């Protein structure tokens, strides 16, 4: 069944806009022991925090971590170049989020230096080239589809494809709006993909059971329940963002005395890039210890895809509780206010994924019907391709037979000419050699 699933997903996937899930790592650095670094050159000094916050609240990438967007690298490079322009950086510092989203800030692009514009033009040409290669690869894998490359390029809404050589204010506006929209829907998309993943797992399990006899089927069902029970048997998971959960990180990850727990120091320790904010990746890293209680890659019963879904749920929960202005970043002030709430000291119990139902039987049935329709469509296409192949082979064989008959007729004609003393001729009737007189 798995090969059909892979084939199904491959054939119906057009342009993948979302990459693999974001992967967080444990934090094992005690910043209290890190010595101050030497002063850097003035050209390498970071722009003001407020400047970086304005853009990061929209794009979530200025900390140089992956956003999960298919144009992630292009997005980072454009902003890195723009930040080198003093005028644009000053305008950005004064701009609010709505001004950036509305596109008014994009008009400031006309005032940046020629050097910056040249770099932006080159970045756009590279991105256009990358997209064209992506389109070509997709079309090569779907040889029965004939489409115009330029028409396909229109599907990418993070740049203006009408002018592939120049980076204009329209390009910056489109890039910001595309990133804003995509990131707002990113978590929702991941949840939907996870749900499909779980339904596919159950679908394949049931299909496999159908291939077994009564005795084997009971054995598999028993093993499945045993594995499920084994996975559910894990230590208590602390409520994400609660004092108990953070103190556990403070003690086990940071190696500090739990009696000395201090929220302000904790914040600074886990603000990895020291920019004054806890972003989504820095938050997700805080849940590693809790996730290790439930998931172990060495255990057959533990699914690492489910672990990342659990991590996402934890981060979303904490963001909803702490991120009061909904800019997807946690400031020190927001963090300290959250530690004063009752939920921080006396949280409700946290329900892990093994305590929840991912889908209903009706949803599974609907999903299986969709799979059946897609498989039938694939089968029809495969049959059509096979018929085309057989027809081409038949035509080829027919041409080969005609060619052989023609060659035999030519040979017979030449033999007759030789018998009659006539010199053999070439394909256009010319003499192959002069007859001896």
Question: Could you characterize the architecture of this molecule?
Answer:
Strands 1-2 form a two-stranded antiparallel ribbon. The protein has helices at 2-12, 49-59, 72-82, 86-94, 97-102, 114-140, 149-153, 169-184, 186-210, 214-232, 243-253, 263-270, 280-285, 288-294, 304-322, 332-338, 342-345, 361-419; strands spanning 277-278, 330-331. The longest helix is centred in the C-terminal third of the chain and has 59 residues, at 361-419. Helix 3 (72-82) packs antiparallel against helix 6. The chain is built from 18 helices and two strands. It is flat and about 115 Å long. This is Nucleobindin-2 isoform X1.
Keywords, please?
437 residues, mainly alpha, 18 helices, 1% strand, disordered N terminus, Nucleobindin-2 isoform X1
């Amino acid at each position: 069944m798995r090969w059909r699933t892979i084939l199904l997903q491959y054939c119906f996937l057009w342009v993948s806009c979302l990459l693999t899930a974001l992967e967080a790592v444990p934090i094992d650095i005690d910043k209290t022991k890190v010595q101050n670094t030497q002063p850097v050159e003035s050209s390498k000094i970071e722009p003001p925090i407020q400047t970086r916050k304005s853009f990061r609240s929209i794009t979530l990438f200025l900390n140089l971590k992956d956003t999960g967007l298919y144009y992630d690298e292009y997005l980072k490079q454009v902003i890195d170049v723009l930040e080198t322009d003093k005028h644009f950086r000053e305008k950005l510092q004064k701009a609010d989020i709505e001004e950036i989203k509305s596109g008014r800030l994009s008009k400031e692009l006309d005032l940046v230096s020629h050097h910056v514009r040249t770099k932006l033009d080159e970045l756009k040409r590279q991105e256009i080239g990358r997209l064209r290669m992506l389109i070509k690869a997709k079309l090569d894998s779907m040889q029965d589809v004939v489409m115009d490359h330029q028409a396909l390029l229109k599907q990418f809404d993070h740049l203006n494809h009408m002018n592939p050589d120049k980076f204009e204010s329209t390009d910056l506006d489109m890039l910001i709006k595309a990133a804003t929209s995509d990131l707002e829907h990113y978590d929702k998309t991941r949840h939907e993909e996870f749900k499909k993943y779980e339904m596919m797992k159950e679908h394949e399990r049931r299909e496999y059971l159908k291939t077994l006899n009564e005795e084997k089927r009971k054995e598999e069902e028993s093993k499945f329940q045993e594995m499920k029970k084994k996975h559910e048997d894990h230590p208590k998971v602390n409520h994400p963002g609660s004092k108990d959960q953070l103190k556990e990180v403070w003690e086990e990850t940071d190696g500090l005395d739990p009696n000395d727990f201090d929220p302000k120091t904790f914040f600074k320790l886990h603000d990895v890039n020291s920019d004054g904010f806890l972003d989504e990746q820095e938050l997700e890293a805080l849940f590693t210890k809790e996730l290790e209680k439930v998931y172990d890659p060495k255990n057959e019963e533990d699914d690492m895809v489910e672990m990342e879904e659990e991590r996402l749920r934890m981060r979303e929960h904490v963001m909803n509780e702490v991120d009061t202005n909904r800019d997807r970043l946690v400031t020190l002030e927001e963090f300290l206010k959250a530690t004063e709430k009752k939920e921080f000291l006396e949280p409700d119990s946290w329900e892990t994924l093994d305590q929840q139902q991912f889908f209903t039987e009706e949803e599974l049935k609907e999903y299986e019907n969709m799979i059946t329709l897609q498989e039938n469509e694939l089968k029809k296409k495969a049959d059509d391709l096979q018929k085309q192949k057989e027809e081409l082979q038949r035509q080829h064989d027919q041409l080969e037979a005609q060619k052989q008959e023609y060659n035999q007729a030519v040979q017979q004609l030449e033999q007759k000419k030789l018998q009659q003393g006539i010199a053999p001729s070439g394909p256009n009737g010319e003499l192959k050699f002069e007859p001896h007189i």
